[in-house]
Write a structure and sequence with these properties.
Radius of gyration: 18 Å
Strand order of the largest sheet: 10-7-4-9-2-1-11
Largest sheet: 7 strands, mixed
CATH class of the largest domain: Mainly Beta
Order of helices and strands: EEEEEEEEEHEHHHHHHHHHE
Helix content: 40-55%
Number of helices: 10
Strand content: 15-25%
Distance between the termini: 23 Å
Shape: globular
Number of domains: 2
Number of strands: 11
Structural class: alpha+beta
């Protein structure tokens, strides 16, 4: 079966599989698990130009890295700050911006990889695939979390109300906090400034609009970006992909 580019997006994570890619520096608000599906592995580069080859690696949020996966099929699993996995994997990373990891044998079997690359897994099977992969990392252990429902409520509202955007003051009022207190709480509990999270939510909204077939000329405006150039730069910064590439060469599904 032919292995193609697929991007699957859930409310709190996204999965990208590709037969091979090269990207300049990208920096995301997600924690990213990269897995080479062939023996050649992939190369990550840092902002100083230092490079290292990996078979599988965990990349911390806000960590800028370039990627050369031209010699391997690649799985990129990204967990949003709303997900439990984001926080568990961040704890596992500690102070490491990138950590080489080993997956337990058969965490991804040949049939699963083949079906994934051919787009033959349904939404339930795809989500089920994303859940055990972190636990397949050697040494990883689940952790207890002290999340706050006010921060979670605000994160959900930011995503659901786009393309409209409430001010921080309005979001704070919803949960009975001052703007400063909400900003502190949001950063402390989700690990990302609220204004950065709003930008990430706009990016996800833009991907959703592309999946729905909206013309690229309208996507930037409808997702809340000032112009198409800003939208294109931001999308490439987060995903390492241009809007035109997603439209032409990626099968995109919102789940």
């Amino acid at each position: 079966m032919h292995f193609r580019n697929h991007l699957y997006v859930w409310d709190d994570r996204f999965l990208y599989v590709t037969p091979g890619m090269i990207s300049d520096l990208t920096q995301r608000h997600t924690v990213t698990l990269l897995v080479a599906l062939d023996e050649a592995g992939f190369v990550l580069g840092d902002t100083d130009g230092q490079q290292q080859r990996y078979q599988a690696a965990l990349i911390a949020r806000h960590c800028a890295r370039s990627l050369d996966a031209s010699q391997t099929r690649l799985l990129s699993l990204n967990f949003d700050p709303q997900s439990y996995e984001h926080h568990g994997l961040s704890h596992f990373l500690g102070e490491h911006p990138v950590r080489s990891v080993i997956l337990t044998p058969n965490a991804l079997d040949a049939d699963c990889i083949s079906n994934l690359g051919a787009g033959q897994l349904d939404g339930a099977a795809l989500f089920k695939l994303t859940t055990p992969l972190p636990r397949a990392i050697s040494g990883y252990r689940p952790i207890a979390l002290n999340l706050d429902m006010r921060a979670m409520h605000v994160a959900q509202k930011v995503k659901k109300e786009l393309p409209l955007t409430s001010t921080v003051a309005e979001l704070a009022s919803d949960v009975g906090l001052s703007p400063d207190r909400l900003s502190h709480l949001f950063s402390a509990k989700l690990g990302i400034p609220i204004k950065s999270y709003i930008l990430w939510a706009r990016m996800r909204r833009a991907v959703q609009l592309i999946a729905e077939g909206e013309p690229l000329s309208s996507v930037a405006y409808d997702a809340g970006f000032s112009d198409s150039a800003h939208f294109t730069r931001t999308l490439k910064h987060f995903f390492g992909l241009t809007p035109s590439f997603i439209v032409k060469d990626v099968t995109l599904r919102m789940l």
